[in-house]
Specification:
The chain is 51% helix and 17% strand. With 804 residues, the protein is α+β, with helices and mostly antiparallel strands. A hairpin with a 2-residue loop joins strand 4 and strand 5. Helix 10 packs parallel to helix 21 and helix 15 packs antiparallel against helix 21. The longest helix is centred in the middle third of the chain and has 38 residues. The protein is globular and about 100 Å long. The protein starts with a helix and ends with a helix. The mean pLDDT is 85.
Length: 804
Amino acid sequence: MIRNYLKIAFRNLVKNKVYSTINILGLSVASAFCLLVYLQIQFEYSFDKFHQKSEQIHIIEMTDFTDIMLQKFGMNLGVKRNSTTMPHILAGDMKAALPEIKEVVRIKQTEETFRYADKTYNEKKGLFVDKNFLEVFSFDLKYGNKNQALNQRNGIIVSQQFANRYFGSENVIGKNINVSWEKPTICTITGVLDKIPSNSSMKFDFLIPIESSPDYQQNMSSGMNSFNTITAIELDKNVSVDVFKKKLHHFGLKYFDQYLQNTPDVKPIDFVFTCSPLTKVSFLAVHPWFHSVNLSQLKNLSYIAALILIIACLNYVLLAVANSARRMQEVGIRKIVGANRRQIIAQFCLDTFLIAVIALGIALLLANLALPYYNSLIDSELQIQDISVWSIALGMIAIILIVCLLAGLYPAMLVSSKNPIAFLGNNKTFRVNPFFYKTLVVAQYTLCLIMLPCALVIYQQMKFLDQKDLGFDKEQIVVVNNTAWGNKAKTKLLTEKLHQYAQQNPNIIDMSGTSHTFGMYDINLDSLDNKPLQYAVYNVDYNYLPFLGVKFLNGRNFSAAFATDTLGNEAIIVNEKLFKALGKTAKVGAYNDFLKTKIIGVVKDFTSISVIDEQKPIVIRCNPSQIGKFYFRLRPNHIPETIQQLEKDWKQMADYQPFELSFLDDRIKEGYRDHLRWMRTINAATLLAIFVACLGLFGLSGINALNRTKEIGIRKVMGANISQILILLNKDTIRLTIISLLIAIPIGYYFMQKWLENFASRIDLNWKIFAVAGLVGIITALLSVSYQSIKAALMNPVKSLKSE
């Protein structure tokens, strides 16, 4: 029987090529997106599960005292977070006090400058770790002895990419490389890492024993005053984690008792000292950690995927009902020769199942082809090979079942419920209930028209941020990193050299330096008139404000003519917001009691931290020995060759520091990168939804033409022309689109109003955005139904009248 059902299903698939193609295309596109989102969710939940001891490894976390202090001074962090950074001394004390702990591993993130021959690079992804790191975590070595590689005091394990950068294809085991610590040190390569799985939280290019760290002894002797190390523990297999957590909390209360007494804002009852499973840390509100899962993004992606799949299923229902109208005589004959309702339903469900299976096969291919674009879209590292075959199979089965239930069951129930005599005796076609299919189309197109204005609003807001007046000239500025920032004498000398170099290079318009580039700053927390006041602090050179083109409202700029300008307690410049916050007591040219220094100038507010958040109060000090970032404004017609020459000359001027260059424009966009990524996601999802929905409208036009075939023939015989027929057939489409638009506008407006609240500077929602969305929706809908409408209008009326 199943074989017979399959034969009929294949025949119907081939016989109705247009409707089958539309159904398969719509379901495959929707299923491909759903499959990618499903795989993304599986990928996120697979993080760190490749470690053999993943179930036994936990990360220590505790109440974040810094966050509590920041919140006290008015900084809104959005969510209460715990900290994973611990004192160096905690590891040994904790293992001695808690026998349930089998191993303790300290992990400290670092970036270091390495040099070999004439090659110098600043390696940003490094870890100082305890010697037992590779015993607890399952990172394999391609070359070297895993059990001995971290035992050598100045040994270093490197990635293959690290080795290739400095040594090419040479065998690097035993090779020496210089690391630029305060005291230049030679490290010996003792191992080369195998490829780190993409679903690893920790991704690094080098490992150095933590005891080799130049500040290790200082961190150990400073006790509770040095929180800068992540602490991981391995528990014995038979330990009850819940019981251990209670014991760990009591240990923490005693251990940090003095610290709690000195922090009255944290009561012992509110103090948290616990551990979290390694495989779940990425999902928790803890920091710092190597990987953080954006649960909000995952949920939103899931909602969008579900929405597109629902649209595709509504398409299938519309087209299946339209196609079933042609099959009513077949159903009638089946019933007369003995088929019961259950068998009719089984046949129609098998038709749906066959289409769903074919669509999902195509979807798997589409998902694989679209994976690089998807990864760039949401900034992911998803690799299908990292997901188990069973997980992929489970996702595909789930999608098939959802499609069969949502799309196949209703048409099967509808057709099987009809009396066959009515269709066989009078040779009638089955009429589809207009209210039913119109409701489906309105529901379907409403979902698209909710997404369309959202996409337009997000695009307009991103464009607004990109074109926003920041209060300074950001064009043609490149930023070069100063890795010798901690060395004041070296930095001051380099700043002077670069100023002279810029003056001599005709392709460099100007040059300056600052302690922090856009989005970064030192923060000072204080209270003024019993109200919290936080302000950002920048150390700059004399030319910083003129270089950016920041306008002065009062006072003067820093000048080498005034020796006291480089003394922080003698001269500062503040922005307009801070000057107003200081009140009437603040005067230019006078000593300020609150800031404990002299204000020599006030500048107009300029955005140096975030284009999203409100303007912060800013203090600017002149300190050429504290420059961490050098700014160069280049002539627009010679940027590539100027950068090339700058890189060449940099090595000599900067004593072979690594040359790390970025564009200030890119740095500014980093501040709203998540929103840009969300814009791209919404745009792609909207295009997919509209594409799938248009297939549904194509089906609607087919239903409409089918139900009105005889009417069209009569109207043409009575003298109606093609344009009148087209208006007759398309007016329902326009009416339904307008109804969808009226429903979608308030919903879209509500969601976008909420989303725009994330921005201090934002666009105004106006009718033009929704008018454009509506116009695009109506035009798209008309284009979708034009083929069927024109085909029906051009049909010979004799054939139309013969059809019933």
